[in-house]
Amino acid sequence: MYGGPRQHPRWIKATCAVKIIFVKVVQVRDMLTDRIEAKWIEAFRRVFELCRVTEGEAVAILSETQSRELNVRLTELALQSLGAKAFHVVMPSPRQSAPVPVRSTGASDALQGLEPAIAALSSSGMVVDLTVEGLLHAPELTAILKGGARVLMISNEHPEALERLVPDESLKIAVRVAVARCRKANTMTVTSAAGSDLTVELKECPAAGVWGWTDRPGTVAHWPGGVIVAFPKRHSVNGRLVMHPGDINLTFKRYLETPIALVIEDDYVTAVEGDGMDAALMRKYYAAWDDPEAYGVSHVGWGLNPSARYEALTMYDQRDTNGTELRALAGNFLFSTGANEVAGRHTLGHFDLPMIGCTIALDGTPVVQNGKLVS
Predict the structure, then answer these.
(1) 151 pairs with which residues across the strands?
(2) Helix (H, G, I), strand (E, B), or coil: what is residue 322?
């Protein structure tokens, strides 16, 4: 049935040409196009409505020259649709000062301490933060919040991801319950079948949760949301964390393929154990900073967002994701090293390491059991 004329060389050549065309079409369909879509304006508008943006309110759109231009334009259009008086503060992206590439720190240096820009932001009703790294750990944030502005960081994600992760009231309830439990606890323990055994002292340790929007003056949030983090004081963290294949290094935007064991003594990573490429890359990145504070614990916490997808990193080019979705992934243990204002540590060296399958307990009571949220 399949013999005869179909074996003719010209037919084979034509078949190959068809196959090549088909592959090219599939590749084009898989790519994301940076154009304004009505559905994305609606997603941004919904989040701004949750932030209680009002008609006539002065809203600053903070960006830098390397910001994702599509998100800047979507922000402007969504704010205008609500009748807000939006204006732009655009900073030149500063020179790189670090010895290695800097990714996902939440510590933007775009403002460079420029007082006129800080004054404009702090006197606004709201600031929409579209800087590449975000203002969460930026030194200028305190002054902006003291002025009464509320700050919404829109993570440097492609709007397709933001559209999937528009928050709702149920997420706010879940995060607030988790924050209350964390603030009452004295000790957090983290264990896993892979061999993790970590203890974090939480007494008088600040804890905060983010559900994806902010509607109160002098507060900050980020979208996507759905995560709780605690910033341990000095001399509070000890133990061992064993990361196994499938855990995530968000600074490198990759799933681990080989095990890593982190030894934490008196708040600092004192050893990165492992024979594979993942451990080798982490050791090299840590060492490149030549800064002891880069090894210090930044924050610990867990994800609460049921809409966040574990496999999301496989679906986007690295330039199209900042990994915030994986930070909010329901049931992950989020361990981070680097800047921690509570402990007096300031550094741009940073790792965010969502771990899957851990058990997280507060004063012995699990809030996450083997990677699943405990209701």
Answers:
(1) 127, 220
(2) coil
Please state the φ and ψ torsions of residue 60, each to the nearest 5 degrees. -90, 130
Per the CB < 8 A criterion, the answer to whether 323 and 253 are in contact is yes
pLDDT average per 10 residues of sequence, the chain (375 residues): 40 40 37 88 98 98 97 98 98 90 82 96 98 90 95 96 96 97 98 98 95 97 97 97 97 96 98 98 96 96 98 92 95 95 88 97 98 93
Tell me how far apart the alpha carbons of residues 97 and 18 are, in angstroms, rounded to a whole number.
50
Q: Is the peptide bond before 224 cis (omega within 30 degrees of 0)?
A: yes
- The pLDDT, as a whole number, for residue 323 is 92
- C-alpha torsion angle, residues 234, 281, 259, 271 (rounded to 10): -40
Round to whole Å and give the CA distance between 106 and 220: 12
Asked whether the CA dihedral 302, 306, 311, 317 is positive or negative, the reply is negative
Strand pairing report for 126-129 and 58-64: parallel
Sign of CA dihedral 94, 98, 99, 100: negative
Three-class SS state of 328: coil
Q: Return the amino acid letter for 257.
A: E
- Calpha distance 111→122 (Å, rounded): 13
The conformational region for residue 127 under phi > 0 = left, psi -120 to 50 = alpha, else beta, is beta
Cα gap 99→84, rounded to integer Å: 41
User: How far is it, in rounded angstroms, from Cα 243 to Cα 278?
Assistant: 10
Q: How far is CA 109 from CA 39, 138, 344, in A?
A: 32, 7, 18
Bridge partners (DSSP) of residue 345 are: 340
